[in-house]
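FORM 12-B: Structure-to-Sequence Request
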């Protein structure tokens, strides 16, 4: 059981890192809408790196535990929207981030009983 947890832990770390890369790639795409071709290509590179990390992550756990870790992307996108794009953080967004985070934590516990 401990071996399974350690394997899942590595997969979770890789999957959350993949989510961060994908989120940053999407942010760069948004920034490229102002005409910056460099932002566009940087976004492709980051998003692609996230996809590759995702593939590696699947070696270290079950899809039912690892795939939901990508939802951290939603929470990070909301935070980056506020910090980088001057978007507003509403009470509903905060509640959504809390729910997503709780779900990720509960699912991250694994599929072992």
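FORM 12-B RESPONSE
SEQUENCE OUT:
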């Amino acid at each position: 059981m401990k071996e399974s947890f350690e394997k899942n832990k590595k997969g979770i770390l890789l999957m959350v890192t993949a989510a961060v890369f994908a989120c940053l790639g999407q942010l760069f795409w948004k920034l490229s809408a102002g005409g910056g071709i460099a932002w566009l290509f940087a976004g492709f590179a980051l998003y692609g790196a996230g996809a590759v990390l995702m593939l590696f992550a699947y070696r270290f756990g079950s899809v039912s535990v690892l795939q939901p870790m990508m939802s951290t992307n939603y929470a990070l996108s909301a935070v980056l929207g506020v910090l980088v794009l001057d978007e507003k953080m509403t009470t509903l967004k905060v509640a959504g981030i809390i729910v997503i985070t709780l779900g990720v934590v509960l699912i991250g516990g694994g599929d072992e009983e």
